[in-house]
């Protein structure tokens, strides 16, 4: 099979298209013929060498959609459509940057759909992250206010749509004034230009603060986001668009407001149920949810795809189609 192998930590050029033996199924694992997969910034960080415990060379890729090629247990039939994400793929073992991938059966989620593969490929990790952040971590409710920090990312735009669909008032941020209309079209009732300090702008809209914050930029804006919540409000850090993992100085009893809550979401496939995924796919098919796909690539264009992802030009999900 053809596989895009990350030879060593480094710039996008360390990803090389090579021939490699096709994996075979084993007990508890199934082989999937990969049809499409989304690109994720966590894969960029892994490629750069920032993910602990990853041994190179490795086939990256933490998600994909495709068809069952081989399942020794007989639970899945050949050609059945499935989605997979997380579960250590692309980090602890070879992932989806290939024509075939072998994954643990317990992270496989079957679905039915006639949507094209590029659309389906954008879904697994993005939906798992958004759904888990909004429901499991933030427990958003109709009538609440939600600030999305990093709203023009693919995760941010989908979160805006889903939150608005649930009856939540959304405030989205972007550093790019040209993206304001896009955010309004993706669920935002208010759009704020983000210079790293938006507390005053948020308080002008909601003097008492907002109920919830979905922090996708990361630690570079986390302290400011904590200043935006009302008493008993919650901030969930899900993303690190800012590119930094560690905060040099953090004083819990100063940086977290009294009665405020700070949590993180680092979801797994177990946070995404079969019914949830099917309902979401059906909502896309009906036009109730619109996925923002910025650009699609081929497997032999992964260097270019990583260069584009690293340039921060994208407005929406990047998808590789086989």
UniProtKB/TrEMBL annotation:
<keyword id="KW-0521">NADP</keyword>
<dbReference type="InterPro" id="IPR036291">
    <property type="entry name" value="NAD(P)-bd_dom_sf"/>
</dbReference>
<dbReference type="GO" id="GO:0070402">
    <property type="term" value="F:NADPH binding"/>
</dbReference>
<keyword id="KW-0560">Oxidoreductase</keyword>
<dbReference type="Pfam" id="PF08240">
    <property type="entry name" value="ADH_N"/>
</dbReference>
<dbReference type="InterPro" id="IPR020843">
    <property type="entry name" value="ER"/>
</dbReference>
<dbReference type="InterPro" id="IPR011032">
    <property type="entry name" value="GroES-like_sf"/>
</dbReference>
<dbReference type="Pfam" id="PF13602">
    <property type="entry name" value="ADH_zinc_N_2"/>
</dbReference>
<dbReference type="GO" id="GO:0016651">
    <property type="term" value="F:oxidoreductase activity, acting on NAD(P)H"/>
</dbReference>
<dbReference type="InterPro" id="IPR013154">
    <property type="entry name" value="ADH-like_N"/>
</dbReference>
<feature type="domain" description="Enoyl reductase (ER)">
    <location>
        <begin position="10"/>
        <end position="320"/>
    </location>
</feature>
<protein>
    <submittedName>
        <fullName>NADPH:quinone reductase</fullName>
    </submittedName>
</protein>
